[in-house]
């Protein structure tokens, strides 16, 4: 199997519903001998202390066939089985490495939601429930068994994504030459099709700002809560009673997190704490926080927190609209939009990017609903807005500059250089990660 085929098959796993069962440790396989020398289940791969059985491999392939994703041709099936086994081996390598990291625990609610979504998509793609059930019957599996297989696969995929996200953040750089990028571009040129009309925008999203007195009141509240926590009151109960964050119902529990997952001021304070310590009040764009570190280990913290939002009043909404009107007026009068962005940076929503590009035909998918009507038909150089946009529990105001409109046409090498180089880089880094895992783990393919 070539590198690219294996990489693409592994990368496509979130799009398919098939799965093998949970990894089975060798010591608990239940490989019962009915007669001396006779094994009930055939092992097709050994990975460290776990195995992949022929039944597991066939279950995965059956779900792919039930979805019509692979042909019934025996030669093609043999190749698919070989490729799929390599992917399942890679999954086990990741699962075994992830066992040692309690931060790599997927959300069960997210898994259930994703399974339901994939099941609905599969039923629709196959022409309805009746056709879907017939396909399952032909493969000899029930809908319940199919759902169980999907659930296990999505759980594995969530762990894989968490594991890879962590490893890729610290992965060593790789060198991708222009010749390699161009070779991929030429090989895929026929698959690229026509590039749709592309629109590039810059924007300001001005969120309502609390007054200085509202911030002072929030600070006084967090000081009072902090004093009670340090006097011995239960931190989780204080969070349930006072915190404005979504984590309040869970006692302010944030679980494990690494750098890069929280806003800078919050994580700087959290990573200075030792286990059991409570921080001084920390101000972020969201309000005032106090943080309690529950457990600490190199590179990550398990913490609870309490957040107090500053209260907004009607004057905050009025100031937001007034600021948006001023930015739009000055931009239409010829002032440089980038200069205006810098001038009003402190009032902009830091979580929303300043610029983005999207294909005009996919405007409804690329931008939030509030953008649809204002941006319809916008031409290069236009200043659009202000128009209202809901951000969390507030109404922000948006001003947009259309900086560039590229007509539809064939993709050029320069347009595709960045995406191709990024994909090749990630592919090489993933290959290097798997190479390192295989060097540390016993792997025996027996198919």
Show the helix and strand layout.
Layout: H1 3-11, E1 24-25, E2 43-47, E3 50-53, H2 54-66, H3 74-98, H4 108-125, H5 129-139, H6 143-169, H7 178-192, E4 194-195, E5 198-206, H8 212-230, H9 235-242, E6 253-258, H10 264-270, E7 282-284, E8 287-297, E9 300-308, H11 314-332, H12 337-343, E10 355-359, H13 363-366, H14 369-375, E11 383-391, E12 394-406, E13 409-410, H15 413-440, E14 443-445
Antiparallel strand pairs: 1-3, 2-3, 2-14, 4-13, 5-10, 5-12, 6-9, 7-8, 8-9, 11-12
CATH architecture of the largest domain: Orthogonal Bundle
Q: What is the gyration radius calculated from CA atoms?
A: 27 Å
Q: What letter string, H or E per element, gives the SSE order?
A: HEEEHHHHHHEEHHEHEEEHHEHHEEEHE
Number of domains: 3
Termini separation: 14 Å
Query: Would you tell me the overall average pLDDT?
Result: 79
Sum up the overall morphology in one term: globular
* CATH domain class name of the largest domain: Mainly Alpha
**How many strands?**
14
Backbone structural class? alpha+beta
Spatial sequence of strands, sheet with the most strands: 1-3-2-14
User: Helix content range of the residues, please?
Assistant: 40-55%
How would you characterize the largest beta sheet? 4 strands, antiparallel
Classify the fold: give the CATH topology of the largest domain.
Triger factor/SurA peptide-binding fold
């Amino acid at each position: 199997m070539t590198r690219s085929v294996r990489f693409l098959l592994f990368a496509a796993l979130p799009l398919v519903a098939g799965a093998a069962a949970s990894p089975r440790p060798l010591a608990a396989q239940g490989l019962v001998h009915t007669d001396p020398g006779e094994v009930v289940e055939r092992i097709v791969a050994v990975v460290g202390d776990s195995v992949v059985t022929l039944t597991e491999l066939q279950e995965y392939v059956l779900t792919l066939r039930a979805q019509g994703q692979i042909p019934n041709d025996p030669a093609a099936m043999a190749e698919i089985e070989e490729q799929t086994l390599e992917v399942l081996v890679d999954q086990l390598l990741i699962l075994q490495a992830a066992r040692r990291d309690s931060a790599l625990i997927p959300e069960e609610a997210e898994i259930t939601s994703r399974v339901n979504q994939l099941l609905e998509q599969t039923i629709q793609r196959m022409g309805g429930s009746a056709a879907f059930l017939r396909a399952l019957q032909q493969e000899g599996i029930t809908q319940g068994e199919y759902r169980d297989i999907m659930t296990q696969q999505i759980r594995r995929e969530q762990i894989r994504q968490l594991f890879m996200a962590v490893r890729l953040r610290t992965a060593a750089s790789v060198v991708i030459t222009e010749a390699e990028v161009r070779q991929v571009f030429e090989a895929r040129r026929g698959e690229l099709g026509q590039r749709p009309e592309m629109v590039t925008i810059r924007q300001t999203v001005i969120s309502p700002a609390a007054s200085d007195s509202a911030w002072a009141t929030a600070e006084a509240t967090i000081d009072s809560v902090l004093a009670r926590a340090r006097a011995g009151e239960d931190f989780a109960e204080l969070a349930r009673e006072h915190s404005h964050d979504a984590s309040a119902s869970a006692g302010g529990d944030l679980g494990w997190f690494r750098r890069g997952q929280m806003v800078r001021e919050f994580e700087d304070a959290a990573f200075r704490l030792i286990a059991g310590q409570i921080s001084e009040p920390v101000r972020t764009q969201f309000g005032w926080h106090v943080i309690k570190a529950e457990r600490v280990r190199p590179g990550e913290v398990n913490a609870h927190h309490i957040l107090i939002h500053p209260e907004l009043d009607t004057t905050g909404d009025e100031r937001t609209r007034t600021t948006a009107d001023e930015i739009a007026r000055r931009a239409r009068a010829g002032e440089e939009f980038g200069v205006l962005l810098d001038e009003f940076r402190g009032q902009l929503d830091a979580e929303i990017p300043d610029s983005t590009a999207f294909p005009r035909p996919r405007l409804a998918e690329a931008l939030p609903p509030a953008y649809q009507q204002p941006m319809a038909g916008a031409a290069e150089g236009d200043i659009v807005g202000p128009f209202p946009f809901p951000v969390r529990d507030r109404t922000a105001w948006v001003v947009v500059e259309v900086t560039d409109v590229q007509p539809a046409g064939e993709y050029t090498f320069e347009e595709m250089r960045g995406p191709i180089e990024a994909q090749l880089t990630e592919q090489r880094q993933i290959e290097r990660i798997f190479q390192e895992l295989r060097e540390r783990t016993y792997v025996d393919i027996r198919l």
